[in-house]
Amino acid sequence: MFCSRCGNEYSEGAVFCSRCGAPIAGTGVALPAPAAPETAAAVASGPAMYYAGFWLRLVALLLDGIILAIPMVFVIAMMVVGFGLSMPFRRFPREDFHDAFFAGAGGHFIFLIILIAFVLNWVYYAIFESSSWQATPGKMILGLYVTDLDGRRVTFGRASGRFFGKLVSKYLTIYIGFIMAGFTARKQALHDILASCLVLRKT
Fold first, then answer.
1. Which run of H or of E encompasses 32?
2. With 162 labelled, which of 36, 89, 120, 149 sits at a CA distance of 20 to 30 A?
3. Model pTM greater than 0.70?
C-alpha cells in the first residue's frame, strides 16, 4: 500500500505516513493543522498528536532521572550497610577501617553500582515504553509517548534498542545525538532514528 500524497509504501495497520505525516486513506484521521502538515501525526483512536520537542523531552528525562534516583539511593545504602557489617569478619586492624572501606569501594563496589544503575535504567525505559502506556512516568506527566514510525506501540526489543542507542547519542556524539531532537524534521534524537521511533505529545 502506498501513501496518496508522497507515494511512500506503508505497512498494514499504519495510521499515518512515516515519510510525510499524511493520514492514511480509510482510517478516518485528518491532519489537524494544514499549515504545518510535516509536524503532525495522528492516531485513529483519539485526538491529534504532535512530535515532542527538545525541551519537553529534556524535562521528561530529568523527571525520570529523579524517579530512578530513589531506588538507586536505596540500593547504594543497602550495599554500604552490607559492606560495613562485614568489616568485623575481615582481617585488618580496626584503625584501618576507613582505608579498607574505600579500598573496597574503589573496585568491586563502584563497579556493582554502575552495573545495577545501567540495568535498572534499561529495564525501566524498555518496560514502560513498550507497555500499554508507551511512556515512562516522566513522559506520562508531560503527555509524551513513544511509537514506531507508523504510530504504533513499540516492542520490548525496539524499546531496548532505543535505550542502547542512547549510548551512541551520549558517548559517541558527546550529547549531540540528544540535541538532534531540537532540529530534525520529526523531532527525532539520534537514538530515535537508530531505533526507528518517534516521541509524540498529546494536545
1. none
2. 36
3. no
Residue 79: count of CB within 10 angstroms of its CB: 15
The answer to whether the beta carbons of residues 189 and 162 sit under 8 Å apart is no
Can you read off the three cell numbers belonging to residue 12?
498494514
The single-letter DSSP state of residue 24 is P
3-state secondary structure 115-184: HHHHHHHHHHHHHHHHCCCCCCHHHHHHCEEEEECCCCCCCHHHHHHHHHHHHHHHHHCCCHHHHHHHCC
The model's confidence at residue 122, banded by pLDDT at 50, 70 and 90, is: very high
172-185 confidence digits (pLDDT tens)? 999 999 999 999 99
CA distance 203 to 132: 19
DSSP state, residue 45: T
Share the mean pLDDT of the chain. 79
DSSP H or E run through 97: helix 97-104
Domain map of the chain by residue range? Answer: 1-51, 54-70+111-202
80, amino acid identity: V
* Alpha carbons 158 and 170: distance in angstroms, whole number: 18
Percent of the chain with pLDDT over 70: 63
